[in-house]
Amino acid sequence: MSRAQVRALRSIDLGFSDLDNALRFFTEVWNLTPAGESGGVHYLRATSAFHHILTLRHMAQPALLRMVFDTADADTVDALHAQVLAHGLKTIDPPGRLRQPHGDYGFGFKDPEGRNIAIVCGVKDHADAADRPDRPRKLSHINVNAGDSEATFACYRDALGFTLTDTTRRLRFLSCNADHHSVVLGFTGGDTLNHIAFEMPDLESVMRGAGRMRDDRRAIEWGPGRHGPGNNVFCYFLGPQDMPVELTAEMQQIDVTDRARTPEQWTWPPGRLDYWGISAAPSARMDAAGLRYKFTGDGWRLDEWR
Ligand SMILES: [Fe+2]
Fold it and tell me: What is the rounded radius of gyration, in angstroms, for the C-alpha atoms of the chain?
């Protein structure tokens, strides 16, 4: 029997100690759009149909709170829940009814390194989903560092149905739909953040986004460039409270016949880290900034959604 699969990285829940500045950044500079507020939680949408792609709330320390993956229907939620249990993981919240805008039905668990994950279906999304220039379309991917990369990879493959699309010396690229990757796992760095990537409609919008970041007195930490795995264009920055964020576009679309390549097949000539070769290497301060972001331990149940 084939494995049940999640079908998209829908949204990420974030906490900031300087919530006002984070809201200003993600709306005025990053060009997301407010989609409601409830109980101190602010919902921000992109141009795709997803009701929201980020939630922001006040936290004493800036933190990653939860990744939310979308599924087709309640049967798939139940099948994924069974796979999570079969993988030896505990459910934090058993499958149950949710309150919009979080969906009709879902469950929550922690991956082997304690990252909070929610699996949902039936979210009442927006009717309008047309691209708009200079505005993010959706989350592209989250790249997390790992302490036990093998255990984390096995969970995303076996419990959530991800497919390995490429491996480099530092990273594994995992896909759950036509996009080359929606989750990227590092081999080192513990339970911390590498970066969160937002998909722009085109290269022009990535470059204009980079200009808005410079207007906001934020340097380009890496880029512009074009990645090897995924073939997507990129620019990296430090967002609010030094959260590493990426603007990207032109992600490679894959099909099941595409073969995952190996670290030996992903080598660059000396001095090169991407196809274009016009940017210096990633800044050390960006890597250091991500190491300060962790998924919070407990308390991120789905109770607030029921
Ligand atoms: Fe990325």
Answer: 18
Question: What is the pTM (predicted TM-score) of this model?
Answer: 0.97
CA of 30 to the centre of ligand 1 (A): 16
Residues β-bridged to residue 2: none
Residue 304 has pLDDT above 70, yes or no: yes
Side-chain half-sphere exposure of 286, counting CA atoms within 13 A: 20
Q: What is the pLDDT of residues 242-265, one digit of tens each?
A: 999 999 999 999 987 778 999 999
Cα 75 to ligand 1 centroid, rounded to whole Å: 31
Distance 264 CA to ligand 1 centre (A): 20
CATH number of 138-290: 3.10.180.10, 1.10.1740.10, 1.10.760.10, 3.40.50.150?
A: 3.10.180.10
Ligand 1 centroid distance, CA of 237 (Å): 11
Report the percent of the chain where pLDDT is more than 90: 91
Give the pLDDT of residue 128: 97
List the domain boundaries for the chain.
Answer: 8-124, 138-290
Top-confidence residue, 233 or 302: 233
> How many angstroms is it from 141 CA to the middle of ligand 1?
7
CA nearest 105: which of 130, 124, 86?
A: 124
